[in-house]
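quick one
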Amino acid sequence: MDRRQFLCATLPLAAQFRAAAAARQPNIVYMYADDLGFGDTSCYGATSVKTPNLDRAAAAGIRFTNAHSSSATCTPSRYSLLTGEYAFRQKGTAVLPGDATLIVKPGRYTLPGMLKEAGYRTGVVGKWHLGLGEKGTGDKGLDWNGDISPGPLDVGFDYSFILPATGDRTPCVYVENRRVVNLDPKDPIRVDYEKPIAGEPTYAANPELLRMRSSHGHDQAVINGVGRIGYMSGGKSARWVDEDIADTITGKAVAFIEQNRARPFFLYFATHDIHVPRIPNKRFAGKTGMGPRGDAIAELDWSIGRILDTLERLKLTRNTLFIFSSDNGPVVDDGYQDQAVEKLGTHKPAGPLRGGKYSAFDGGTRVPFVVRWPGTVKPGVSAAAFCQVDLLASLASLAGRTLPETAAPDSFNLLPVLLGKSKAGRPHIVEHANALSLIVGEWKVIQARNGQKRNLTGNELGNDPQPQLFNLANDLAEQNNLAAQYPERVKEMLAMLAKIESDGRSRPH
Ligand code: NG6
Ligand code: CA
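structure w/ NG6:
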């Protein structure tokens, strides 16, 4: 008896329809790199580093050239991805410390929750960085040694295996579902973001333990020879080994696919690569001649290959929508002396774009975005405007779900764009760095913003006390500020942006 006949024989009619619909749903794998720039992969023009696995996905799918992360840093981009709401609407969605509380509140309509309702088995593997628990850490706060809740399982995921925040923030342990992995109860974990923990090595007191120095910050706890943000004690058997993070989480992602091969699944696989600290496995160390940053790109590409190979091996390729992107633009010096600057050579992490991570210029949010679904998506290149905040509404459309009126306030249903059936992208793009920007067609305005021009590690932020206007069609690199020449256009576009802000939503009713 095949699966259909079996369902017919055993289920009542309504359940048969549901099961049949679910059986037709494609799997969805959303692979999310960290800090990977528009120019960091060979399918987007890099020559100093090769990414054959991403290139093969791009050759068989669609390579987008005007797709954006919702923000120029991690936490707000991930918040928007899961909620379909621009992060600038909510306080507390900036880059979070490792002891932050969960910022996507249970009960919220989310991307994984929507897919779960549609019959998907949902999993998140990798970097989380959206907080955990409701009390924060500290003496009376989140206890890392017990059940950690609420977390991913309370906002729509059936399974989670995560790094709580970032590789450079404590606690340096994995959390699987509600528990720290490999924790010895006799060696409990304590996390502190205010003061050192007595008896634990610190950056200042124990330089002999360091194998990588900081260029800025990263000078609190020393774990595995690397200075981190935040302090921690205990959990010795649970601590991750930086060199093995890609292997560990890619293994968990592969296992999730294997275990759920027989039903529709949604995997959100958020890599640690190529975020700092960049400590790739020895298989990749020294392989690109570009130092750890280049080697981390090679390691990332290996992870992509493992996912694609797994789909192929399980014969799921034609029934899986695979999407790859990055949470924000590239950064070279992000606070460690890891030779990224010295060994950059002619490589341009943001390709032709100005700025990168943290920046209001396009390098901050215009990121690689590749969609592959053989048999359904025709290979090509798309210049359509797309934002990761649109994934919720677009994938809801794919899964046959109607969004509640108040859900996902900034998510546009661009499923036809995602699948290459239309080139009509979103009518405008809001970019979120320190300042907000608005792109409409070829024009881009950046709101006036006081503040530093560059951050402490030299990354250009795009702040200017006057509004800036660029024509991206002739000046993709944002070199010629035309604000003085077109004051009316600046005024109109800033008014449109102010309305998007004050309306509290931008998704059409
Ligand atoms: C910054 C860190 C940087 C990185 C970033 C968050 C310093 C000097 N810089 O504060 O290293 O961790 O936060 O990156 O500490 S993100 O991709 O998660 O947004
Ligand atoms: Ca990031």
